[in-house]
UniProtKB/TrEMBL annotation:
It comes from Chitinophaga terrae (ex Kim and Jung 2007). Residues 460-720 form the ABC-type uncharacterised transport system domain. One of its GO terms (cellular component) is plasma membrane. The chain crosses the membrane at residues 12-35, 73-93, 120-145, 151-173, 180-202, 234-253, 265-283, 747-765. It comes from the Bacteria. This is ABC-2 type transport system permease protein.
Length: 770
């Protein structure tokens, strides 16, 4: 009987001009967005193929661009879907009420359950038609794109179908509440709007936050659209369908036979409660199954991170989030953002370790001698200032611990009272920091390093030498090295990626035996004989070393370098440029340098073999005069049009001119960074020497693509940082030409909609004549 009712309703649906109008409008909308995305990309792809003989692909995913981004199909159709569905479902049941056929159904032996399920089954079949329309374009995209990521396409199709079925279940229930279709349509709009916004309401209350977040339909298809299917999201859509189909059944049963209102209310509550209970239980960590359908498994932690998590065993890890009311970005740690914090940061890790527990501490405090807040709020003490700031954030001050209270638990002054997480495991603790950038939360590299730190008794130690006016790892000046080493607020700093940092003065201290890397960063005064002997003993014993120097200081470093068979030549490399001063070099990264580490940027260069340039504000060339000591490879090389100026270089006057009479020298390419390695004491010794020190300092750090981090990675045998390498997309080529895309546009945007319009018109006219 259910199928008979479904068949009748489906037939009536296609005898309705509304269904035909929605079908044609749906087709045109999808065709418009697909062709609008395809045509410009096909045009530029043709231009690239026809003009660049080395063109190997765009490097970006055409599957994502044509279906997910910008003006693509799914990016737009899901935003407008709520406009279609109420028009489709507004008279599903009200039509029966207005025509009087509902009384015939009530008086027949047909069960109310069969009526409701039959009607919903009919609309599910119509939803399959809409899915079929999308499927035609998914197939077209699969044929248009070489090596298309079909997993994303299938996952997106599933997300669309579940969403439209949830919307139609809502529309079915609203149609049972009123005899007026327009009222039913408006009711559907309102319910969808409420479900879309409820996840942002009352988020400061723990129980209410979890309930409203579960009920929210906003973003439920987000993961599926990008290729990640989870049982949590599927259960949510099934729960919504169950709730509103169940409500419809209760509503029609109440209209068919008298039931006391307390009984009906209890039935509504029972349906709602069971759906929420099952869905809520199924969304707990440990009960969620994941399926990453993407070709590159972009939603799955990399194998090296998974191994770190597996090595944690069954012991729980507690994560305590400390949120300072005065810290930059503190709003992201407030209760209102808790679900966002858990989903964005921790859900990928909960997938592999469900016994992560979370704790939250809110407090207010400022660094000693920091008077900025007191100047902004003159005449107020810290508690009064906190009250005003809390008011600005709509937070109760009572939720925040005072400085005295939080100090009893932990000292956060070394963390500058920033928003920070403390990870605890088997009695060990470590900090996981946030960063003031567009992402804010740590990424997989930093999280993996923190989890590894919980397991290891010793982390790799980098020793920076002092005593000869070297670059400082603690000062914040432009020429210093704190940005890439000890800066806790820098995402790329060594301390945030698995390294321990320390400094020693060789004059009165020995290099620790547990040092993994020693750094001699641009000394300004000559090393004493004692310091040189200690450093030579370290290198002779196979220690890893990083040396950076500057033009004009060759005499200071050459006594150290010559024991390794290399020398820094006198003078400064000159490279004439329209944009920079003559001493500013733009050396290119060599092929050998791309193998330093699994950093995504270097992997991309290595895979496609392309090169990139850095900025070096003043560099001296490096040469090897004894190849019997180390095997040498260049990492950075200057252009062939650069030359070595041996005399005084004037950079603020007329451009210098190459003058061999003054000792200027040309070369096929001066080396500005060298890699040295040899096997000694049953290990490979690794050394890097740079003819410039500024390119790693706080001023130039961001301009140089994080290359300094790969130096440390190579010298640490690539144990840290833990790079989560993701393979480049394979779907970066098109099979279709621009002219072929124009033909597709004509067919999909004009011919097929015209045929559908003719078919619908003929069918409706014949139906009316009958």
């Amino acid at each position: 009987m259910i199928f008979k009712i479904a068949k009748t309703d489906l037939r009536n649906l296609f005898y309705s001009p509304v269904a035909w109008f929605l079908t044609i409008a749906f087709w045109i909308q999808i065709a418009y967005f697909y062709m609008n995305s395809l045509l410009p990309r096909a045009k530029w792809y043709d231009i690239s193929v026809n003009n660049d003989p080395k063109f190997k692909g765009t490097g970006s995913s055409f599957t994502a661009e044509l279906f997910l981004m910008g003006e693509s199909i799914f990016a737009n159709i899901l935003q407008n879907l709520y406009l279609f569905v109420p028009l489709l479902t507004m008279d599903l049941i009200s039509r029966e009420m207005n025509s009087g056929t509902i009384k015939l159904l009530y008086s027949s032996p047909i069960k109310t359950r069969d009526i409701v399920l039959g009607k919903y089954l009919a609309i599910m079949f119509y939803n399959l038609l809409l899915l079929g329309i999308i499927g035609i374009f998914l197939l077209t995209g699969y044929l248009n794109i070489q090596s298309a990521d079909y997993g994303i396409l299938l996952s997106s199709a599933l997300g669309f179908y579940l969403l439209v079925c949830a919307y139609t279940a809502i529309g079915l229930f609203m149609s049972s509440l009123s005899n007026y279709p327009i009222v039913s349509a408006i009711g559907s709009f309102i319910v969808v709007l409420v479900l879309g916004r409820i996840g942002t309401l009352w988020q400061q209350y723990d129980f209410v936050r979890d309930l409203t977040y579960f009920l929210s339909i906003s973003g439920r298809t987000g993961k599926m659209l990008t290729g990640l299917i989870t049982t949590k999201d599927i259960l949510y859509f099934l729960a919504v369908i169950y709730i509103f189909v169940g409500f419809t059944l209760i509503r029609l049963k109440g209209a068919r036979s008298y039931q006391p209102w307390p009984l009906r209310l209890g039935q509504y509550i029972l349906v709602f409660a069971t759906a929420v209970l099952i869905g809520f239980a199924g969304s707990r960590p440990g009960f969620i199954a994941y399926w990453d359908t993407t070709a590159g498994k972009i939603h799955t932690l990399r194998e090296n991170t998974q191994k770190i998590i597996k090595d944690l065993g069954d012991e729980p890890v507690q994560v305590t989030l400390y949120t300072n009311l005065f810290a930059e970005g503190c709003a992201l740690g407030f209760p209102e953002k808790r679900n966002d914090y858990l989903t964005r940061l921790w859900e990928p890790y909960l997938r592999f370790k469900s016994n992560l527990s979370f704790r939250y501490v809110y407090y207010y405090d400022v660094k000693k001698h920091d008077s900025m807040l007191y100047r902004r709020f003159p005449g107020k003490n810290l508690q009064e200032i906190a009250k005003e700031v809390a008011k600005g954030f709509d937070q109760p001050l009572s939720a925040f611990q005072t400085p005295e209270e939080v100090h009893k638990e932990i000292d956060l002054e070394p963390e500058n009272y920033a928003v920070v997480m403390e990870l605890s495991y088997k009695g060990r603790k470590t900090f996981l920091r946030t960063f003031i950038d567009n992402t804010f939360w740590p990424n997989e590299t930093q999280v993996a390093a923190a989890l590894k730190r919980l397991q290891l008794a010793k982390m790799p130690k980098v020793i920076f030498l002092t005593g000869n006016l070297e670059r400082s790892v603690y000062k914040l000046g432009e020429r210093e090295y704190s940005g890439h080493s000890t800066d806790k607020q820098s995402r790329g700093s060594l301390i945030n990626n698995g390294f321990d940092i320390d400094t020693i003065c060789l004059e009165n201290q020995d290099i620790p035996k547990d040092a993994n890397i020693v750094v001699l960063a641009d000394p300004k005064t000559a090393l004493s004989e004692t310091s040189q002997n200690k450093l030579k003993a370290y290198t002779d014993n196979g220690g890893n070393l990083l040396i950076t120097g500057e033009p004009g200081k060759q005499s200071i470093l050459n006594p150290v370098l010559e024991s390794m068979g290399i020398r820094m030549l006198d003078g400064t490399i000159v490279q004439l440029s329209r944009n920079y001063t003559p001493d500013m070099l733009t050396p290119y990264i060599t092929r050998e340098a791309t193998g330093l580490a699994e950093q995504s940027f270097l992997v991309g260069l290595r895979t496609e073999w392309d090169t990139a340039r850095l900025l070096m504000p003043g560099a001296a060339p490096l040469v090897q005069f004894d190849s019997s000591i180390f095997h040498m490879q260049p990492l950075l090389m200057a252009d062939t049009n650069a030359w070595l100026k041996t005399g005084r270089l004037v950079i603020d006057s007329a451009a210098p001119v190459f003058n061999p009479a003054e000792g200027d020298v040309k070369s096929d390419g001066f080396v500005t960074a060298l890699q040295l390695k040899r096997n000694i004491n049953n290990k490979e010794q690794r050394i890097i020497v740079c003819g410039d020190a500024d390119f790693m300092d706080n001023n130039w750090l961001r301009a140089n693509l994080g290359i300094e981090q790969t130096f440390y990675s190579w010298m640490d045998n690539n144990d840290f940082p833990i790079y989560p390498h993701y393979a480049p997309p394979k779907d970066d080529k098109l099979r279709i030409t621009y002219q072929g895309a124009i033909v597709e546009k004509t067919i999909y945007l004009w011919l097929i909609p015209g045929l559908l319009l003719m078919t619908g018109t003929v069918l409706l006219i014949r139906r009316k004549r009958q």
